[in-house]
């Protein structure tokens, strides 16, 4: 349900810009270029990797390409030994055998002050080379899984850094690619490559960005087309057989220090592993593991987890290894590698070419921004909504957009990205705002890590399930996000020197604003120009708001009140909290648990704080009651979407234990209703002094209402549950402030209908 060991391997990959955010969105290019088809992720219906592999490999002889971590395939091999006979060959991109990293080296004429970084390393872990200079990202993603694959007895061809380091992109190739974009796939690949170049962290892109996975595919296909000869004859790479293994733990072996989950605290090792064997040493615990630091602080890091190590003796496996890219046979060509020619030719072939991109998929495609005209209406309470993008947060957002502007004037949205969804889910916020005709509302991206924690930390967020019922379903809104109309606004990696980027990209005006920037803009408008204070509603961890309080000395004076959906007040019944993945933490609530220091910061800030705690949320988390009222209400596009979302969650909760907790998200909508203040809720508040506990996982995020030192906050004690359900349904069904474009299906019809609208 959660990730062991603070994401010991995954933390090597940055979470925000330059890392997962840019990969998940392909720098923001994906949604603006790729067409939208009918297939989509659907909870409990989406085939698993194991199902697909089993079905495919059972059907007959199969060749496997692995260009990422080896987890999926290793699990398959360990679970289905009888199907190994059907696997003819495995092609792997990853590892470094004899490689010498060419990046991070000092120029020849550099001063003595220049300090080499990854220069000469076997690996490419740019986030962790001081601890582990040997590993490459794909193998490091799961070293034990890679070991299982390499030692499976199946023939393997490896294209490691040794070879890919010899095929940098180069300026000549980049220019040739720019001139050869005859197909949609060529256009998409070049756009991706160009954005990678334009956002590269230094001016060495052409010598430090290589053809990793694509070169592997070329070598593999060439070997297959040449009849898979015994020596791996192919057009693009020089090959050599090498005996090697994958390092999974560090010497000395058999000394159990708490780092190795296969051995530590076990009478019998997992998977029948040998005590004192190669898997029994220290396992790197993270990218800042003290064990891995060089002795006396001098030299390279000493951990080798994930190292594809050349070795003699019985532990070695004979692997066909690509050594270097072959030069272009045409000496007069500006392209110096043979593979460059094939890559550009094949990518531009008209056969098996893409049919269209998003803009050509629909004859009447047009990007329109909808902005609300509120000039003739009195404005209500200025509100900033801070959300971590759980399903409940999106229902809350739609609800806030439905409340008359005379009551709630939503000024901005802050995204706290260390909660239930990844930062890339910000695109779904843009889609909801587009549906509701509010493309004028700014959205700011906040921190991806808790207060005072390093950017790679997943100390708390690792306790949110990654798959079913967790991040996967939050990111996709349980598969329903694709029903929303596509907004012209989206996350993009476009950036500007003005904001600290190394260079301006083509469209710096499209840059994604940060949460602090949106806050500064909104607070300046509301406080300085309108003479009002801001109400803040938080529906996730309090990280973003705490960062604002700490960085902006004027923030507290500009905040009228803070409504916090979170925390758990333990009553006489001692009912548990909802952090179900941490059994030792019985009385915390997730939003406080995910950043207890931030929660403590806000509670002790002196702000006017109102808590909507877990106990109150549980009074309104009945799916049958909510669905009954919604089904009886007048239909609007937004009500239909909310009804589909809640119905899906309810059905999943009944079908699988993985979804038993999703009623938590339904309860989160209560905070927005309390901010709106409809008297039908009959909300009763009481004031109590509270403290937030932090520093012990079993108590992190727990609220204490006893002892000295607590700060007084208002706590929602009771409300009329039935009145709340009726109010929610009536609001969602109100024809006022309704969707201007109800769904992607409606958008598709508009874009497909001729004559095109002007």
How would you describe the overall organization of this protein?
With 758 residues, this protein is an alpha/beta fold. It has 2 domains: 308 residues, Inosine-uridine Nucleoside N-ribohydrolase, Chain A; 353 residues, Inosine-uridine Nucleoside N-ribohydrolase, Chain A (Alpha-Beta Complex). 31% of the residues lie in helices and 12% in strands. A 9-stranded mixed β-sheet has the order 9-8-7-10-11-12-15-13-14, sandwiched between helices. Helix 4 packs across helix 6 and helix 23 runs antiparallel to helix 24. The longest helix is centred in the C-terminal third of the chain and has 19 residues. It starts with 19 loop residues before the first helix and ends in a 6-residue tail after the last helix.
